[in-house]
Amino acid sequence: MIKYNLLCKKCDLTFDSWFASSKEFDKLKKKRLINCHSCGSLQVEKNLMAPKLINKTINFKDEKKNTLKYQQIKKTINEYQKFIKNNFDYVGENFVYEARSIHYDNKKRDKGIYGTASKDDIKELREEGIDTNLIPWVENENN
Ligand SMILES: [Zn+2]
What we know:
Elements: E1 2-8, E2 14-19, H1 22-30, E3 44-46, H2 60-63, H3 67-87, E4 88-92, H4 95-105, E5 112-115, H5 119-127
Parallel strand pairs: 4-5
Antiparallel strand pairs: 1-2, 1-3
Bound molecules: zinc ion.
C-alpha cells in the first residue's frame, strides 16, 4: 500500500488517499476514477511532498543507478552537511569520547559535535541515553 497526498487543482483541497501501488494510481486516474472529495473535480494530482529527513545511511552504489535521484539526494545531504559544518564542531574519530564527556562530565560546549562513529558505537551511546543521530555523509569531490 502506498499513501499519496493528493491535490485538487480546482479547489486546492489536499487530502490523503491509499493505493495498492503507484501503478494503481495511474490506472485509476486514466479511468477517471479519482476525484476530489470536496468538489468532485477530476483534476486531482499527486501533491509533491516535502522531502523527509533522511535518517538512514543510503547505499550510494545502488542509488548511482538512478543518477537524477542520486543527485537530488546528494544535494539534500550537501545542504545538511553545510548546516552541520556551520553549527557543529568537528571532532573526527573522537566523537564517541566527546559525546560521553559532554553527557557525563557536563562539559560545556557552545555547539553540538559531529564526527565519525561506528554503528555499534552509536547503538551504545543511545543505550546510555546520549542523543545521537546517524546521517549519511558524502565527501564533496569538488573540494
Ligand atoms: Zn476540489
